[in-house]
Write a structure and sequence with these properties.
This protein folds into two domains: 4-144, no CATH class; 153-230, no CATH class. It is 38% helix and 17% strand. It contains nine helices and seven strands; from the N terminus they run αββαβαββαββααααα. It has helices at residues 11-19, 40-49, 69-85, 115-124, 153-161, 165-172, 176-182, 187-194, 220-230; strands spanning 21-26, 29-33, 54-57, 89-96, 105-111, 129-133, 141-144. Strands 2-1-4-5-3-6-7 form a seven-stranded antiparallel beta sheet, sandwiched between helices. A hairpin with a 2-residue loop joins strand 1 and strand 2.
Length: 236
């Protein structure tokens, strides 16, 4: 078992979490949650249940280390029991790796849960992270329970060397921590974050920074004001 006191999460694993589709099975409808995106179907479900928060959580494969099906099912049953004790609405689901390298992880969407209870359960079942929806904006975020792992100098060099040439100088100007976060975002976002001088606020853009924090959810004007407040030249 991983020593949680010294545990950290690699950029590659965070990237895999962000690329996972978190599928909720509700009343004959499949709702697909994506990290860093707003989901209106989820908002409708939350309003129907009269709640303003939700978490998507599993007990499968602690610290993303593969366990036997028997061990995973036993932990999942205990998680369900813990959720039942909170007297909240629970919907079944699964986390699906779009690359097909990982088998889907059976999961639960817990509606109306507090952030503290979500964190407690994630820690109890040794999860690196969980999916969190903190209000009726429907913004789906990834909450890490451990710090990001800072790659070695050689790993950073290799990653930068594989970037398009026009992005390499921008990447070299970042700190190791900033690079670690940048390495964890989906591929299509890398150029966006390395080229803030080219941002067009009239066009869609990621509404979460590389570290996962929201940059603004709501109207376009609200997004612009929040972006200006954050500083458009700031990566993290």
């Amino acid at each position: 078992m991983t020593n949680s006191k010294n545990h950290s999460i690699s950029s590659q694993l965070i990237k895999a979490y962000r690329n996972t589709v978190y599928e909720v099975h509700s009343q004959g409808q499949d709702i697909h949650l994506n990290i860093g995106k707003v989901n209106r179907d989820l908002v409708a479900l939350m309003k129907q249940k009269g709640v303003t928060t939700a978490t998507f959580l599993t007990a499968f494969n602690p610290f993303s280390k593969q366990l036997s099906i028997e061990e995973n099912q036993s932990a999942q049953e205990k998680l369900l029991s813990d959720l039942d004790k909170l007297s909240i609405s629970i919907v079944s689901g699964q986390g699906k790796d779009v690359t097909g390298l990982w088998s889907p992880d059976p999961s639960f969407l817990a509606l109306g849960i507090s952030l503290q209870d979500a964190e407690t359960l994630a820690d109890r079942y040794s999860q690196n992270a969980f999916v969190w929806i903190g209000n009726l904006d429907g913004f789906v975020s990834l909450r890490l329970r451990y710090p990001i792992e800072i790659p070695s100098q050689e790993e950073l060099y290799q990653w930068i060397s594989h970037l398009p040439v026009h992005l390499q100088e921008s990447a070299k100007s970042l700190t190791h921590t900033e690079l670690a976060w940048l390495m964890s975002v989906p591929n299509e976002e890398v150029e966006h974050w390395l080229s803030p001088h080219l941002w067009d606020l009239n066009q869609p853009w990621p509404i979460a920074k590389p570290d996962g924090s929201a940059m603004g959810v709501g109207t376009e004007l609200d997004r612009v004001f929040r972006l200006i407040h954050a500083g458009v030249q700031s990566l993290i």
